[in-house]
Design a protein that fits this description.
Elements (H helix, E strand, L loop, with lengths): L12 H12 L15 H14 L4 H17 E2 L5 H16 L8 H5 L2 H5 L6 H14 L9 H9 L8 E2 L2 E2 L3 H21 L8 H15 L2 E2 L4 H7 L3 H27 L40 H6 L8 H7 L19 H6 L2 E2 L16
Antiparallel strand pairs: 1-5, 2-3, 2-4
Length: 367
């Protein structure tokens, strides 16, 4: 689906939305069983950075991350091999969601800075094999709705003329809609950062993005009858997801204020000295286990973090622009690991469970 079509404004919008809701009932169940789940946020950030660099639409970005999540949940994959898998997910998602001229080229991917620092070169043959492995894993079905597929349909009705701002009539309806758009897409990106959001339906996450934005913008009521009828979700259906989003927002605000108040020269070094024997220092990287208690038990080792440090140096500005206060680090020059051939890659993939169980029906009422 290309965003230029703006299906959510057409006569078939309700039918398309209902079709997406039916398709999300058939999505595989995410179990969060990957041994490399501590690396997930790194690769979610990497895919977001590359999507921005190649100007891919949000649906392609979210689909790429979702494909990676499902694959990691299905296979035991070595950390270094996740680079090839992540890039393959990005290519498949962009081929499915974007125009042909927007799909990243192999030469472009090989020229990326972190690819060079890892001494990693992709070739067409191995990339095709990886894409085939991914497609077989997903049963050759890439039509998997994500929150990004629902967001524009819900956003189209996110602000109404009768809404109140801080208890008063809105002075500028157009400005309020513009702010609503920014906040909603901010929360949409928040949902990519934490795999906890995969426990909710994609449409539920999209609806929660709208509700969380209305709360932050002090628009009342926080959830209207019109939004209930449009999305099929009541306030009670969304509260848990909204709480996660608002918690992430609060953490972002605190981190942004902390960064502003901390002089640059007093901030800790991004990477401990190689001559230091201290084990308490950790590199200032994107993944912060303390900020996500429910995944801290899967925290990566220091060597794994250092091996993934090139991700941070790709584009710090992107993460700052798309998520307020996202933790970034100065570029780090880690040891250059060797990347195995495709035969080694294939042998390193251990299937966890061949079948991808499907989600059951939801208790949510359909209007």
């Amino acid at each position: 689906m290309e965003r230029e079509l703006q299906w959510w404004k057409g006569q078939l919008a309700a039918d398309i939305h209902q079709s997406l809701r039916i398709k999300e009932l058939k999505l595989p169940v995410y179990r969060a069983h990957s041994p490399q789940i501590g690396m997930r946020r790194y690769f979610a950030d990497l895919l977001a950075i590359l999507s921005n660099r190649y100007q891919l639409c949000p649906t392609a970005r979210h689909l790429a991350v979702y494909l990676l999540d499902l694959f990691m949940d299905h296979y035991d994959v070595a950390v270094k091999q996740l680079y090839v898998i992540a890039l393959s997910c990005l290519l498949l998602a962009s081929k499915f969601e974007e125009k042909e001229d927007r799909v990243p080229k192999l030469e472009q991917l090989n020229s990326l800075g972190f690819m060079c620092s890892l001494n990693l070169v992709l070739n067409k043959r191995d990339l095709i094999k990886m894409e085939l492995l991914l497609l077989e894993t997903f049963g050759w079905n890439l039509c998997m709705p994500t929150p990004a597929h629902f967001i524009d349909y819900y956003l189209h009705a996110a602000v109404q003329e009768g809404d109140l701002y801080n208890g008063w009539p809105m002075s500028s309806f157009s400005k309020t809609k513009a702010f609503m758009d920014k906040y909603t897409h901010y929360f949409l990106e928040v949902s990519l950062q934490d795999h906890a959001f995969l426990s909710f339906r994609p449409s539920q996450v999209a609806a929660a993005c709208i509700a969380a934005s209305r709360i932050c913008l002090q628009i009342s009521p926080s959830w209207t009858t019109a939004l209930h009828l449009l999305t099929g979700y009541t306030w009670d259906h969304l509260t848990q997801c909204i709480e996660l989003m608002l918690l992430a927002h609060d953490n972002d605000v605190k981190e942004a204020n902390k960064s502003k108040s901390t002089p640059p020269h007093s901030r800790p070094a991004s990477r401990p000295s190689s001559s230091s024997s201290s084990t308490t220092s950790t590199p200032q990287l994107l993944f912060q286990p303390d900020a996500f208690p429910h995944i801290s038990q899967h925290s990566p080792s220091l060597s794994q973090l250092q091996a993934l440090a090139p991700v941070v140096s790709v584009s710090q500005d992107f993460l700052q622009n798309h998520r307020m206060g996202l933790l970034t680090a100065a570029p780090v020059a880690p040891p250059v690991p060797t990347f195995p051939s495709y035969s080694a890659l294939s042998s390193g993939l251990q299937p966890g469970s061949r079948g991808l169980p499907l989600q059951g029906p939801s208790p949510c009422r359909w209007p």
